[in-house]
Amino acid sequence: MFDYISVRDAAKKWCISERRVQKLCEEKRIEGVIRFGHSWMIPKLSSKPVDLRRKNSKIPSDEKNDI
Predict the structure, then answer these.
(1) 3-class secondary structure, 20
(2) How many other C-beta atoms lie within 10 A of the C-beta of residue 29?
(3) What pTM does this model have?
(4) Do the beta carbons of residue 45 and residue 8 sit within 8 Å?
(5) Which of 24, 34, 62, 63 could form a disulfide with 41 if both were Cys (CB 3.0 to 4.6 A apart)?
């Protein structure tokens, strides 16, 4: 049987807010997440999803001279 953790435990583990973990669950961005009543069950071995809100804004060094 799988081991699950709470939203609070996942937030502490991944160093993000509980609300952010809830949003990731709602968006099905965490593999294996299960809704249980008003709570979410997150597999204990799940890894933190990549934050799609952030873009890699680094400009390659050869393009910096063109700006």
Answers:
(1) helix
(2) 15
(3) 0.72
(4) no
(5) 34
Q: Judging by beta carbons within 10 Å of its beta carbon (0-12, 13-18, 19+), is residue 9 exposed, middle or buried?
A: middle
pLDDT tens, position by position, for the chain (67 residues)?
Answer: 569 999 999 999 999 999 999 999 999 999 999 998 999 999 999 989 887 777 764 555 554 555 5
CATH architecture of 1-47: Alpha-Beta Complex (3.90)
Residue 34 is classified by DSSP as E
Task: Say how many Å lie between the first and final Cα of the chain, rounded.
Answer: 56
Structure tokens at 45: 């071995």
Strands (E), the chain: 4-5, 34-36, 39-43
